[in-house]
Amino acid sequence: MINLRYHLVSLAAVLFSLAAGIAIGAGLLDDAGASIASNQNRQQDISPAVAGFDAAYAENTGPDLIRDSLSDQSVVVFTTPGAQDAQVTGIVENLQTAGAQVTGQVALTSKLLAPANRQFSEGVANQSGGDAVTGESAYQRIGSALARAYLGTETAETDQDARTIRSAFVQGELLDQTTEPEQTATLAVIVTGPASPDDADYGAVVAQLAPALDDASSGVLVTGPVSSSEDRGIVGRVRAADGTQDISTFDVTDSATGRIMAVAALAREAEGNPGSWGTSRAADGPIP
Predict the structure, then answer these.
(1) Is there a domain that residue 77 lies in?
(2) Distance between CA atoms of 113 and 121, rounded to whole angstroms?
(3) How far, rounded to the nearest angstrom, does the alpha carbon of residue 186 sit from its chain's CA centroid?
């Protein structure tokens, strides 16, 4: 009988052959010092036939792997500049398949994530969040304001204090609420895009925001495509930062199977088992 483990291993094999372009994953790319541009070109060279197989395989096996794994959870989806719409949509759909209530989708703008705007962003957080804003550093305080606005240990109706913070961040062009949540969520997913020249700075900021979000909720996952886990990518920066050991990461959202595994990673995070999964740059192996 084909069991769950068989499916997981099969999904991982497809995932890495697609996203990394080699049988084992991204390890050989690391050793060769491949650039971000060459990594992206390699992904673009995946044949339509193989990509079609990946999508069909994920569609037919994925729901059984993740169904009801998040049935008691609610999730807010944050995105960073460069996050791919198709990948975000796929993750949202998989979250819903897993039984999660997706409360909304919120873009963290380049203005929020640029270190040059730290003082302005902290001022918005302090003025709008009042006593709810805590933390020693600027980004801890900003993160605590965002957590008060969107997260909690239980799903609950959004109150006026949360709406005040959201409004201030939107008016300050620090956030763009693609779909404004009507409720607070118990989990957060931060979806990133391919590594870009700005991502080293953005990643350092996300690495400081994420622990504050995690402290106010049942967990946070930072996820993106293969190149996002390079040294300059946001996932890579989060993994390398101090104080992010409770933040889960996954780095293969550029395949349909990877987007299934991203949701599996969030389920592990919600159980209190954070980890780093995906390519060979992930410390805990390919499969959550």
Answers:
(1) yes
(2) 9
(3) 15
Cα dihedral 51, 96, 84, 207 sign: negative
Residue of 247, 183, 184 lying closest to 220 (CA atoms) = 247
pLDDT per residue of the chain (288 residues) written in tens, 0 to 9? 445 555 555 655 555 555 555 333 444 444 344 444 444 444 445 567 767 777 787 787 778 889 999 999 999 999 999 999 999 999 999 999 999 999 999 999 999 999 999 999 999 999 999 999 999 999 999 999 999 999 999 999 999 999 999 999 999 999 999 999 999 999 999 999 999 999 889 999 999 999 999 999 999 999 999 999 999 999 999 999 999 999 999 999 999 999 999 999 999 999 999 999 999 899 999 888
Q: Is residue 287 part of a domain?
A: no
Backbone angles phi, psi at 181, to 5 degrees: -70, 140
> How many Å separate Cα 79 from the centre of its chain?
8
- Count how many domains the chain has: 1
Domain that holds residue 57: 4-277
Q: Would residue 74 count as lying in a domain?
A: yes
- Alpha-helical (H) ranges within 115-233 are 118-129, 138-150, 160-171, 199-215
Maximum CA pair distance of the chain? 60
In residues, how long is the chain? 288
Let me know if residue 286 belongs to a domain: no
